[in-house]
Each structure stands twice: as C-alpha cells, then as structure tokens.
Amino acid sequence: MKAIGLYRYLPIEHKESLVEVNLEKPVPSENDLLVKIMAVSINPVDVKVRSPKEKQETAPKILGWDACGVVEAVGSNCTLFKPGDEVYYSGSITKPGTYSEYHLVDEKIAGKKPQSLSYAEAAALPLTAITAWEGLFDRLQIDLNNKKENGKKSILIIGGAGGVGSIAIQLAKIAGLTVIATASRDESKKWVKELGADYVINHHLSFLPQMKEFGIDHVDYIFCLNNTDQHWESMGEAIVPQGKICSIVENSDPLDLNVLKSKSITFVWEFMFTRSMYHTPDMVKQHELLTKLSQLIDEGKVRTTLKECISPINAENLRKAHAMVEKGNMIGKVVLEGF
Fold this sequence. Notes:
single chain, alpha/beta, Quinone Oxidoreductase, Chain A, domain 1, Rossmann fold, 16 strands, about 30% helix, zinc, ADH_Zn_typ-1
C-alpha cells in the first residue's frame, strides 16, 4: 500500500522531510479496525513530531492521526463496527499514523462519521473535537446538559480561531456558557464570532482590562490553547476565585503555582492521546464522544472547521500542508483527500 513517512527529521522545505513509501497492508488484531483512508487532516502535533532532530529511523515512520475512511475488516473482538461502516477518528500516538492507504485503529477510539459531512469535512474534526470535548467536559467538568446553571457562567478560550478553539467555542455555546474568545487578526475575529463567541479580545494584551470593557470582572473557566507561559499571569488575574483552568500547551519554563494559590484555582492538563497511550479503562469514552458529536453535527448544532482541502494525499501535498500549519496562524483546519 502507499504511505508517506520519514527516515530523517528535516525542515519541511527539504524534499526528504516526508517521502512516499510502499508498505504491506496491515492485518487487524482482536480490537482493531482496518480502515481504507479517504481523508486526513494536519494538526500541530504532526508538525511537532516531524520537526528537525538528530534522530534517524531505520524503517519509515508514518505520521498522521486524524482520519476519515471506510472499515474494510474488523478484529475478532470488535462489536462496535462492521465492514462498510464510515468512521472518523484520531489514532494512537504510539502506533503508525494515518498517512497511508490503509490504517489500523482500536475501535474504542473511533466514531461513526457524521452522515451530513463529506470525508474531508469529517477528517477535519476528530483530534480537535476530542481535545475540546475532554478539556471542557472531563477536565473542567462543565456539565454539557445543565444549561440553566451554565447560563450564569463564562469561559475564556485562548486561541479561539485554531482547530481546538473552533470546536470549543461551539461546544461551550451548546452548553449555555458565555464565551469570550481571543483572536488578534480581522479574519480570525470574524471566524470566532461566526462560531458563536459572545466577545472577542486580543491574546497579545492582558485579558482582564479587555474583559472589563465588556463589563466582565472574571471568568469561571479558562481553556488555554495557546502559549501557557505567556498567558500564565494574565490567566491568574482573569479567573474567578475557585475557578478552573485547563491548558493543552506544555510550558517551556517553570510555572509559578503561587499565582493560583490565593484564589484556590484548579489547574489541569488535557492531552487527547492519554486514553489511547495508556489504554485507560475508560478508553471507549472517545468512541462515545465522537458518536455524540456526529449527532450534534447532523442536527446542525456543530459545523466542521475545514478551511482548505488539498488533493491527492501525497508527499508533496503533505509537505505543503505541514508548512501551512507550521506558520502557527491557521484558522480552522487543512485536510488532504484521496490517494
């Protein structure tokens, strides 16, 4: 089968940063689905794993996590899917990736593709949607179904125009929260407003003075999707006493936890690969949330975040897509479709 991978970790401008290879078609084990890949999307984690380093691979390393495709075969223990089902998912970071014609994924982290979306539109969603869902509802412990109580509360989403932020805004609004999103460019401000943000502020400036211009003295929740180090002090100022902060961006420097002490703030990380990486007992929750998301999408309550689609899936186009994401100013998602 065709696949795109790497042997060396090189700048994306280098033609050997991603190369085309031929591999044996994989065979599903007990809990695996064998999926014929129809579309993949590119995330910052793809760029980060591929980024230049001294390490070299003896066998091609296949990147890619987000995918949408058709189940071709199932393992002996599979009960959630059957051949012919259309699925979307974000695979495990510990296994070969989705830049390949066929891919194996544990059925517990796959969901049925939304019927109302194309393969490309669906492929844009899994990693960012899982991250947003887990961040809001598992880590910050917001009750999706308690709109009455949530209507009294607010959330600040830092980095609202990116892939995760674009989903988080929509989910937070469905939950009934007042949403303040950060964006700094005219096109990103327009995008977050279209997705439902009630207020927009600039993440290059301190949060609290901008919030006060809208009559908001604090927020109950903060979801940090951009530069935890840069925003640490500002988050401490903006959060309500006994509030909760979740971040998906690792810190580069030590964080001063005393910033949160006097307010008794809860701080928690979100990493969407945790369940698949450690095979946690609740791993099937990713299947469940993707299934719920499909329903919300087909009901017209959540929209895809696809902004650009490139075809076909090959090394040249993947290098092009990686370069786009590497710039760090993406609005929504870029997807590649069809081998």
